[in-house]
Amino acid sequence: MPVGGAFSLPVVPHIEILSAETSDAAALPSLADWLRHDPDVRRQVLVTERNPGPVIDLLLGEVEAIDVVLQAYAQWRRSRWDSPAVTVRVRGVPVRLFGCGPEFAVWISALLVAEVPTGPRYR
C-alpha cells in the first residue's frame, strides 16, 4: 500500500452513449440490446442502461475493445432505415459518431488513454 494508506484503483475504460439522432425514442434501447447480443462485444464489454436515461454505459475490458463496439454500432446503424448517428462521451468529451471508420477508433482510444492532470490544482 502506498505511503499514507492511500491507494488507487485501476481505471476501467468507460464510454457513455448519450443520444441518437433520430425521432425514434426506442433507438438507444435498441442499440443497447444489439450491443448486448453481439458475441464479440459481450466477450469484451459490459453494456448497461442507466435510468433515468436513456444513456448506455460501456465498460471496456481493454481500450482495444472499442473496435468491436464500433463494428457492432455500424451493423446496427446499417440495419435501420434512418441510420442514426450517435453522440458518445469519453472522459467528459462528446464525440459524434456517424460511422465506424478508423478515425473514430483512433480518436476514442486516444481519449481513453490520455493522461489526466492530477494534484491539488485539479481537484
What CATH architecture label applies? 2-Layer Sandwich
Helix content: 25-40%
Q: Which percent range describes the beta-strand content?
A: 15-25%
CATH class: Alpha Beta
Q: What form results from the Cα inertia axes?
A: globular
Average pLDDT confidence is 83
| Count of domain modules | 1
Structural class: alpha+beta
Number of helices: 4
The neighbouring-strand order within the major sheet is 2-3-1-4-5
The H/E string reads EHHEEHEEH
Oligomerization state of this entry? single chain
Radius of gyration: 16 Å
Amino-to-carboxy terminus distance: 22 Å
Determine the CATH topology.
Alpha-Beta Plaits
Major sheet, described briefly?
5 strands, antiparallel
Model regions low in confidence, pLDDT < 50 over at least 5 residues: none
Q: Got a strand count?
A: 5
List keywords for this structure.
123 residues, alpha+beta, 4 helices, 5 strands, 24% strand
